[in-house]
Amino acid sequence: MSGSAGHPWISTSDEESTERMLRVIGVKDVEELFSDIPDKIRLKLEDWLKLDIGFGRPLSEIEVRRLVEERLRRNIVFNPPPFMGGGVYPHYVPPLVKYIISRGEFLTAYTPYQAEISQGLMQAIFEYQSLVAELLDMDVVNASMYDWASALAEAVLMAVRVNKGRTKFLLPANMNPIHKKVVEAYTRPHGIKLVEVGYDRESGWLDLEDLKAKIDENTAGVYVQYPNFFGVIEGNVKEAFELAHDKGALAVAGVYPISLGLLKPPGELGADIAVGEGQSLGLGLNYGGPYLGIFAVKYDMRLVRQMPGRIIGLTTTKDGGERAFSMILQTREQHIRREKATSNICTNEALMALAAAVYLSLLGGEGLRRLAEINYYNAHYAQRKLEEVGLNTRVFKGDFFNEFPVSFNEVKVEYRRVHEALLERGLHGGLYIGGYYPELGETALYAFTEMHSVSDIDRLADSLSEILRRLGGG
Fold first, then answer.
1. Which domain holds residue 312?
2. N or C: which end of the chain has fewer CB within 10 A?
3. Do the domain assignments include residue 4?
4. CB atoms < 10 A from the CB of 429, how many?
5. Residue spans of the chain under pLDDT 50
């Protein structure tokens, strides 16, 4: 910055102001501010000046736009959408959802620190909480978490806080393995012991006998994913939660919201805490985010007071008795809680919560049931079509919702080669899960939603048939 007159738009960019700020914080120059960054990975000012990205000169706005558009054209947009399962899914997003969340008062709002001033945003969050509470058959919903994985991790931490002195938490082997890695990262500094409960190799359900052998008086909570990672509709949820309650542990359910159009909600099955991913509720795939972590509890003040995030409540004004919204619980560290905070979640997820509220309002109860039926029947049609190709589509005997594992072991073909051949035909195949579950071998998880028509599924089946013949597996 030496010799600079300062930037005309930044009042403190002149040399005198910079030197005064450096003296106050006790460093000799700007370089010292970044001294903790290893030299081998740091790009210094002189490096920036020498930086050449291949043009040798600055680019005009028109040239930059052309360059970016040319790069974007390299992206492949799959039609039909990917047949990949495992936690996020291609669902139709009504244009009205995007229109409403694009309004300036919602899109540009960061977070309501002076909450009661933002009555419109507060009402939007309250409506989200109310709709999700009804969907899950739970009583109190926060607004909100980053995604399913972080919501689950917070549920584990919460269970340990509520059950003081207990340090063990049981996780099923048939849960999303990526979620498990996030839970491990969150809980490691807290000394929480995570114990895996096996699954029945025939049905795909949680192994109740293994659960009985591993649950004890030191168990803070038990988690069950429903449907589980394999897409199988878990049949032992209620029994697992009863075992948890018998030992004084909390029952935590992980849910895929669209499936609740057909399946019993977690509250009805005995869950104390329910978590899930709101991505399917009008958010789209979005290249991996932002998503929406759902977090809900039954009405028990032990649980409510330990919830992460925030809760919006409905009240009336003192003067006129008019309806008003207020932030009634805010356990973030910024809100005076500091080290006593139950969560450090900071980024505003209200925009994603608003999208979910608009989506659920448009769909309604009957619409959600119909959507769930389409997903269920599309997957079962696909299961029969891929079975006709000669693939093992019943890796597990338990009924499934909108996804199921497809085994390529019997046709003796490496799945990687199949996947690459599908890509060449403009199709994106399933998620390879053999790395997570070596006992399943060459197996991929295929998912089907309302975005996959009968002709799309037929095209997938025909393509797989051709590929297997070419690769010598059919």
1. 95-360
2. N
3. no
4. 24
5. 1-3
